[in-house]
Amino acid sequence: MKVAVLAGDGIGPEITAQAVRVLAALATDGLALELVYGAVGGAGYDAAGDPLPAETLALCEQSDAILFGAVGAPRYDGLERALRPEQGLLRLRKHFDLFANLRPALVYPELAHASSLRPEVVAGLDLLILRELTSDIYFGKPRGIVVNEAGQREGFDTMRYNEGEIRRIAITAFEAARKRSRRVCSVDKANVLETTQLWRDVVTEVHADYPDVELSHMYVDNAAMQLVRNPRQFDVIVTGNMFGDILSDEASMLTGSIGMLPSASLNAAGFGLYEPIHGSAPDIAGKGVANPLGAILSAAMMLRYSLGQDAVATRVEDAVRAALRGGARTADIAREGEPTLSSEAMGDAVLAAL
Ligand code: IPM
Ligand code: MG
Fold first, then answer.
1. Model pTM?
2. What is residue 16's DSSP assignment?
3. CA dist 126 to 141, 235, 300, 309, Å?
4. Which atom of ligand 1 is nearest to the CA of 93?
5. Average pLDDT, the chain
């Protein structure tokens, strides 16, 4: 099995290095894994003048899965949009049609204290945010900044979804719910936006094939509020690209740290890109203190969803739990005054448990 490793920018290389150590240990232990490396984001721009160099894309095409770090850094913000680091990621998602973005938010008992909410509100939380990833206002056309008739600059983007795009993510949501607590909450803004009225209609139609799964609908503003009021009411949340981007960052704080959350972005064939949901964190980049657990847990998702290694994935997840149980803490998940580990020392703790 071949994995394309694209570490990217900022803390991307630091955290990906720890996930790679875990994979390398599994390879030594008999897992047939080959890792190949490519430049992406700002690193791609520096290497080849393109946030997704052709060579990197070719590498991904020859691989069974992509392990991704993070992209973006302030020094690229002045570039024209097509050359900015984020485009590397967005083009990969579109190119491989990675429409289903799974963002599980799990509260580990050891970390309930690190949540911004009271421990009794988040204890035992196990939520799956399923974000549509290849359409919506992220990709809708037309878009641009023009000078209007009044001589003012005017910016515009287009939110759009066709029914096929909604149907396939709805099916993914109901199927995922069947393996969990059989409850789907579809999040939209159907009281205002036409696009999301269609979203609600199509999700409701698809639900007819899943009578064993409970479906509810919620407006996105209410969902944002409910997530911090009573997050345990949710099992699977399915939503569009932009709402999912926002709600998944919010949900991450329930778990204690955005550094803990992994994600899988899958296409219909099961090919996937795996990345922690956090960004490149320029403020702590290069210091070796970032939490690598989101990256390591993303590697576990990769083993499960693209490489067919369910038992090995569970082994990695158990090792993360064991490291946490043993008191391993990076700065983002430590209590005040508690000793904190570097990214690499956290990697050591997971490897020791593995
Ligand atoms: C995410 C990120 C990306 C997004 C950025 C880096 C383009 O925020 O994966 O959530 O907006 O999708
Ligand atoms: Mg985001």
1. 0.95
2. H
3. 36, 7, 17, 22
4. 12
5. 97
